[in-house]
Write a structure and sequence with these properties.
By secondary structure, the chain is an alpha+beta fold. The chain is built from two helices and eleven strands; from the N terminus they run ββββββαβββαββ. It has a domain of 102 residues: Phosphorylase Kinase, domain 1 (2-Layer Sandwich), CATH 3.30.200. The chain starts with a strand and ends with a strand. About 6% of the residues have low confidence.
Amino acid sequence: MNKQLNYGGFTFGLAENSAYEQLERQRESGWRQLETLQQRPVSFYAGHPLEVMTLRGQLFGEKGLEAMQILRHFQQEGMPKVLSDSLGHNLGRWKILCLRETHQNIIDDGTPLMIQFSITLEEYPDEIHHHNRRRNTQQDPVSGVGIRR
């Protein structure tokens, strides 16, 4: 396997010197609570929240600087991009929430020999996804919050 993930044409993988060593995925349950007067809170299911994924790893030398430049450009574009896994499965469109980098072992010309990075992505639901979600959701008349049928 020479790629881990592909994000908008940028490949995370050993062959490209842009491998990550940790992947963390987080998806909340969608359960919410509504506080009530003099009673216990009421729980309700508000639908599927967006999933968040954080990749952490190390980049090295000039190629590492180039990789960070590409990722910073993607972040500044403000456009969601397609994410696919190592088998080519389309995971949908995702947006960059946060990009962190720490330059280490800097040589005399200012080039870091190593860059620690983390990139946090959040799924970006397409309009079709939103439409289907709205069609299967009603608004709670008391709280005004969407609830699934």
